[in-house]
Each structure stands twice: as C-alpha cells, then as structure tokens.
Amino acid sequence: MDASARRLILFTSLMALAAANPARAGQTLDLSGAWRFERDDHKAGLREKWFAGPLAGDATIRLPGTMDDARLGIPNPKKPTLAGLYEPFVYEGAAWYQREINIPESWRGQRLTLFLERCRWVTTVWLDGREIGAQDSLIAPHVFTLGLVADEVSGAPSTGLQPGHHTLTLCVDNTPKIDLGTFVSALYGGVPGNLNGIVGKIELRATPPVWLDDVELYPVLSNDSLRVKVRLGNATREQGHGTLSIAVKDKDGPAVWKASRPVTWSAQGGNEATLTVVTKMKPWDEFSPNLYKMTVVLDAGAAGHTERRLEAGLRQLARRGTQFTMNGRPIFLRGTLDCQVFPLTGYPPCNAAPWRRIFRIEKSYGLNFIRFHSWCPPDAAFTAADQEGIMIQVEAPQANVPAGSDPVRDRFTKHELMRMVHAYGNHPSFCLMTLGNEYGGKPDLLKHWVDMLIK
C-alpha cells in the first residue's frame, strides 16, 4: 500500500461525535436578542475607544443576524443585473455590537467563556472596557475566555471577574484581510457581497476550573473497539486527581458499555487521558445511520464536575485499490456541490432542521454525498448529515491560489485546517477533506499539511 493510501485510511477512519453540550445543564446563558449597534464608517471606534462606554447611537440590531437582515448597511448604489444575486445593502468595515450581561451568583468559582458561532471575519471582544482578545476564523466558532469568576470560598485564582452586571462589547470587521482567491465560498459564497454579523449561537458558558477541554473518538471496527481520548483543562494552577467515566447506550435503549478510570492533571494543564470502549455497536453508513448516546464525565472533586453528552456514530471509510469502502464494503459517491448559496439570507442556517430538509431532498434524487466548495458548513449541517446518512467533504477557505506564495495566507490556512478538524472532524458524516479548491503550490508544504491533519 502506498503512502497516499495509508494517509487516506488513517484520516478517514476517524470516529465522529455530534456537537456536545460544553457543561452541565444550566451552565449556558443565551445572549441572542437585541444588541446596541454602531456602524464605524470612518474607522474611529478604536481611536475613540467606543468599547470604554455605551455606544453613542440609538440603533439596535437583533443577533443572531446580520446588518443586511436589519437593513443597517449602505443602500447598494449598483443596479441589479442578471450576473448573480443582488444585495440591497452593502457594508465593508468594522461594526460594533454591545449589550449588558448578568453573571449569575451561582457561577462563582467557574471559568467563563464567550461562544460566537459563524462570524465574518475578525471579532474583537471587550468586557467592561477590558480587551479580551481577537479571533479570525471563517469556519470555526470564536471562543473567548473571559476569566474565572471570583470565589472567596474556594480561593481559586481570580481575574477580578465578579457576579452581576457587566458590559460586553464586540467589534466585527468584515474587511477582507487576506487574498484567499476568487469566489471563495467561505467568504462570499453564492451571494456577491460580504456580510457583517454573527449568525449562529451567541452564549456565555461556564465550566469548573478543571474541565473537559476536548473529547476525540477513534474506532477500530475489526475488534469492535473505540478509543476515547480526553484533554483536561486546568485553571487552578494546582495539580490534582479525579475520575473519568464514560457510558455508551443505544439511542433508544439501555446502556451497552460503562467504564471509569482515575486521572490526574498537572498545575500547567493540558493533560490527556484515554479509555478504550470494547463493545458491539452497529456501524454508521448511508443506509443505516446508527447513532449512540455517549456521556463523558469528569469528577474533579473540589475542582468541579463536568459532563458532555454526545451522539456518536461508528464508521470506517477506507480505500481498496481504486475504490472507496465504507465499513469494508465498496461504495460509490453520488453527490453534488454546495457553494454556500442561500439567497434569502446570504448565510447558512445554524440549526439542524433546515439541513435535514436539504439532505432529504438530495437523498430523494439518489445522492449520498455533498462537497462544500472552499468552505465548511456549521455544526448543525454535520448533525443533520449524521442523522440522514449523508457523507460530507469539506475544504479549506482558499481557491485557485498557490500554497507557499503568501506566508500570511499559508499561516491562516494551516490554522483553519486544524480548527476545522477539531470543531467538526469527529462527526461520522465528516468523511473527506481537501486543502482548498484547485489548490497548488509547493508540494512539500501541501504534504506537511496533510501529515499534520493525520496526526
């Protein structure tokens, strides 16, 4: 077997899990609704420190959503043509969003994060005028750590964050930052415009100071085993020990497997632990998209209790000669192309129901596969594809540009590839991945990216 075949088998043998709740019930606050809004036409916001106080105007906007939804952009001076879809309002630049938040008293001692799903392009966050940071992914959620909420009882390290009322300010800048190529679906898609806003979940999330930071599943169908790899986060600055427990059950039936093991973590954090599930699980494929409920629990004693509830599907996509195989059986990929064409909104839905409708229509035509041209859909699309048995190919947000010719673009592409895998790569529907659309460039760099993704 040649090296490319081994890479294909290794990469596409990943097990998938649908999106998990980051913390126990009651540890998430929905921030959707009305936000104060200010357009920054003259790029004055940073210079005048708009984040330091209430925004000056009286405009409001509803999030999730975009400036186009709210008709807060600039009326498009161009006339509609037959060349493509028409955007009634246009705006390219920074826009400011602000609202008051309330951190519950019950969150004392908890680690607080802000979750922003589907932003375009760069978001910067301030809490009470204090800058938290900036992120720039086009395909993965922007997640900001706001800090540990003060807890005088436990004595955990604090960033000065107290329960009660605070002002949260966001700046979303949709100015194209990097030349990613022509007709990159992640940026423009099927709509000839560049939207500004946040169109997915907007949430405050609380976890204990020692928490489940990541869960990855790796199947071996030949011996009915599943390796569960967990990464622990630690904000206490102290070492400790606890118990990791995992339970797997049929979606509509009893538990099929349970196990636990002791775990430890260092003062620096970043510790990993694994458990191997050995049980007979029905495999996932296009005809029988079997999914199982999985619960992963970290009992960290005084440092807290975290659990994730997942839906998992077991499958192995590989290659035999010139044929693809799914769970050892030859398959034929019958698919279509998705260039992020959503003419009513300009952006993809971030809940599963619309995606299930799309995938059912595709299945009615005998299709089982969809390629997302130079973009990656939101988590809801993978969740729906898991349920419907649709196989997905995602691509890095670049098109027709040579790798190795722009260090800034290469760095961004590398990060986007890894963010894509970590955010969505464990869904059973996540079957194939490319480095972009019609990409080329330096072979050594392209090989490095592929090897990086396999590891």
Global shape: globular
Tally of DSSP β-strands = 31
What fraction, in percent, of the residue positions are helical? 10-25%
Radius of gyration: 23 Å
Compute the separation of the termini in Å: 19 Å
Contiguous runs where pLDDT drops below 50 for at least 5 residues:
1-26
Biggest sheet character: 6 strands, antiparallel
Summarize model confidence as the mean pLDDT: 88
The total of helices stands at 6
If you had to describe this structure to a student in words, what would you say it looks like?
With 455 residues, the protein is mainly beta. It has six helices and 31 strands. The chain has helices spanning 3-12, 67-70, 352-364, 379-388, 407-424, 443-454, and strands at residues 16-17, 28-30, 33-39, 60-63, 65-66, 74-75, 89-90, 94-103, 111-116, 122-127, 130-135, 142-148, 164-173, 197-198, 202-207, 210-220, 225-234, 240-250, 255-265, 271-278, 292-299, 305-313, 317-320, 323-326, 329-331, 335-338, 369-372, 391-395, 402-403, 430-434, 440-441. α3 (352-364) packs across α4. The longest helix has 18 residues, at 407-424. It is globular. The two termini are 19 Å apart. 41% of the residues are buried. The model is unreliable at 1-26 (pLDDT under 50).
How are the SSEs ordered, and which strands pair?
Blueprint: H1 3-12, E1 16-17, E2 28-30, E3 33-39, E4 60-63, E5 65-66, H2 67-70, E6 74-75, E7 89-90, E8 94-103, E9 111-116, E10 122-127, E11 130-135, E12 142-148, E13 164-173, E14 197-198, E15 202-207, E16 210-220, E17 225-234, E18 240-250, E19 255-265, E20 271-278, E21 292-299, E22 305-313, E23 317-320, E24 323-326, E25 329-331, E26 335-338, H3 352-364, E27 369-372, H4 379-388, E28 391-395, E29 402-403, H5 407-424, E30 430-434, E31 440-441, H6 443-454
Parallel strand pairs: 26-27, 27-28, 28-30, 29-31
Antiparallel strand pairs: 1-22, 2-15, 3-4, 3-8, 5-14, 6-7, 8-13, 9-12, 9-15, 10-11, 10-13, 16-17, 17-20, 18-19, 18-21, 21-22, 23-24, 24-25
